Amino acid sequence: MRILFIKISDSTFIRKDEEILRRHFKLDSIRFRYPNRFLLPIKLIQLFLWLVLHGRKYDVIFYYFIDFHSLPITVFGKLFGVKTAVVIGGYDAVHIPELGYGVYNNPIRGAIARLSLKHTDLLLPKDDSLIHKKETFTNKLTLIQGFKNFVGSVKGKVKVVYNGYSSPHLSENDIRKKENTILSVGFAPTKRDFLIKGHDLFVKTAGIMPGYRFVLVGVRRKLVESLIKDIPENLEITGPVSQEKVSRYMKRAKIYCQLSLAEGMPNALCEAMLHGCIPVGSSAGGIPNVIGDTGAIVKKKDARLVRDAILQAMKLDPHKPIERIRNRFPLERRERELKEAIEELAGG
């Protein structure tokens, strides 16, 4: 079986899926990118023409995320009878209009997303919340998550395939040496990203817990200073750092906070739990599904509730988050389920 893998970046989770599929199928990869929005129409036409010339030899086109690039892939697949499969990660299944977040914020982009969702043969959301979920974490913003809220029924098959993780080396001594630190990680180069990741709530919580050390990774201090007048003295802010350094922070921290407004299946949260961090998360998206009974869920966007959740989590067993990720979301499970889904798609 021959598969064409179309990627929009070389991020770690995309490379993992590329490696998985290459182990089981004959796979070719191409990357779709455009330097600016003015060149986007030309790049979409080029992708479609490339598919017409070279795409008919493939059994399946596998790609990441519903967006502009979905249009030539979907149209080509329908015209020439080539099966299409897409991984749905979050931005393509959520809309927060007040923050201009999600593909549905742009009418053209939203129309392309709806068409592609309707006509793609296999939809692979990373969490059930990306299909449909009623969000209630905040009353101040409109939170709509789940692609069925935007398109209703779809023609293709929908199969949830969770992310998969390999366990880092962590000794019992590492767990005993955990510091009384509360950590949150999330790349946020803009105000919108800062709010989506719930970093504003994290900073406010640090302000009402002066006896604890808070660490925020992935945000430049200058951005935080432009958004928040008084930054708590117990909050350490570091900009984007290497994955190795993120792992070191996770290894030391006792509590990990994921207070996002919207998420599919958050990688940083899962990785923190594998490092023995007890999780505290918002009730948004797939966060509760990841945490389960190993941490604390905050049901409303309120710093006092986050504080109470952190204090509750401090008393919990740090071994349970490790076991949950290892047992429920191993990389081997994602590999098996992706392989089975592609084989069933091509066979059908």
Describe the structure.
41% of the residues lie in helices and 19% in strands. Helix 2 runs parallel beside helix 3 (70-80), helix 3 packs parallel to helix 4 and helix 8 crosses helix 13. The chain contains 15 helices and 15 strands. The protein folds into two domains: 2-164 and 330-347, Glycogen Phosphorylase B (Rossmann fold, 3-Layer(aba) Sandwich); 172-328, Glycogen Phosphorylase B (Rossmann fold, 3-Layer(aba) Sandwich). A six-stranded parallel β-sheet has the order 2-1-3-4-6-9, sandwiched between helices. Strands 12-11-10-13-14-15 form a six-stranded parallel β-sheet, with helices on both faces. The longest helix has 17 residues, at 331-347. The protein is α/β, with parallel strands linked by helices and 348 residues long.
Question: SSE layout and pairings?
Answer:
Elements lengths: L1 E6 L4 H13 L1 E6 L8 H15 L5 E5 L5 H11 L2 E6 L5 E2 L11 H13 L2 E4 L7 E2 L9 E2 L2 H4 L5 E2 L13 H5 L2 E7 L5 H6 L2 H9 L5 E5 L3 H7 L7 E4 L4 H10 E6 L8 H8 L3 E5 L4 H5 L4 E3 L4 H11 L5 H10 L2 H17 L1
